[in-house]
Write a structure and sequence with these properties.
This protein is 41% helix and 9% strand. It is an alpha+beta fold. The protein has two domains: 84 residues, Ribosomal Protein S4 Delta 41, Chain A, domain 1 (Orthogonal Bundle); 86 residues, Structural Genomics Hypothetical 15.5 Kd Protein In mrcA-pckA Intergenic Region, Chain A (Roll). The chain has a five-stranded antiparallel β-sheet, covered by helices on one side.
Length: 204
């Protein structure tokens, strides 16, 4: 459905930028209808319980990165078992997904489109074709678009897309080749979520 993504933003009561550039225009649903979807959306909501707030943050993170419950729980377990701060590691895993990197460099205007691009086999990882959006990239990995895919309409105006994008410090782009310079840090991301609440939700 065309409005399904907009409803997710309205339900979260903030822009999650799920529809790319459209979210920055007056057409954005959060500007036209800044209240929850449904018949009673305009009514004042009751304050959420601690559990409800944690659940809302968890759902928000899932919607932003477009991942399932099973996958997010898997990432949480990995983050909680690793050395370091669990919130930082969780976000690092999410940001290092190949579909997120394709989105971050500007190849796709949304993570949903980035997943589609990867799934259709348009991206090469270290010179080899991949079609799994959930692959976690490592320092030193490189990405590029298949030469045969560059002629497809989905990649039209690619140079302009690159120029418009604010490239994170942990990525580099040269001659349409993307390199992972380092692992992403929490301060280099812009996910509008309270990660600590999500860690607490899964730690129950």
């Amino acid at each position: 459905m065309i409005n399904a993504k907009c409803k997710k933003c309205r339900r979260a009561n903030q822009k999650l930028f799920l529809k790319g550039d459209r979210c920055s225009t007056p057409k954005c649903a959060m500007i036209k209808k800044p209240y929850a979807p449904g018949l009673h959306g305009k009514k004042r909501k009751k304050a959420l319980s601690e559990y409800g707030s944690q659940l809302a943050e968890k759902q928000k993170l899932r919607r932003i990165y477009g991942i399932g419950e099973k996958q997010l729980r898997k990432y949480f377990k990995e983050a909680s078992k690793s050395r370091g701060i669990a919130t930082d590691i969780l976000l690092r895993i999410l940001e290092s997904r190949i579909d997120n990197v394709v989105f971050r460099v500007g190849i796709a205007e949304s993570r949903a489109k980035a997943r589609q691009i990867v799934s259709h086999g348009h991206i090469l990882l270290n010179g080899r074709k991949v079609d799994i959006p959930s692959i976690i990239l490592k320092k030193g990995d490189s990405l590029e678009i298949k030469k045969s895919s560059l002629l497809k309409p989905i990649f039209k105006g690619l140079e302009n897309k690159f120029k418009k994008q604010d490239l994170p410090n942990w990525l580099s782009l040269e001659n349409k080749k993307i390199s992972v310079l380092s692992l992403p840090e929490n301060r280099e991301t812009d996910a509008p979520v309270d990660l600590q609440m999500i860690i607490e939700f899964y730690s129950r």
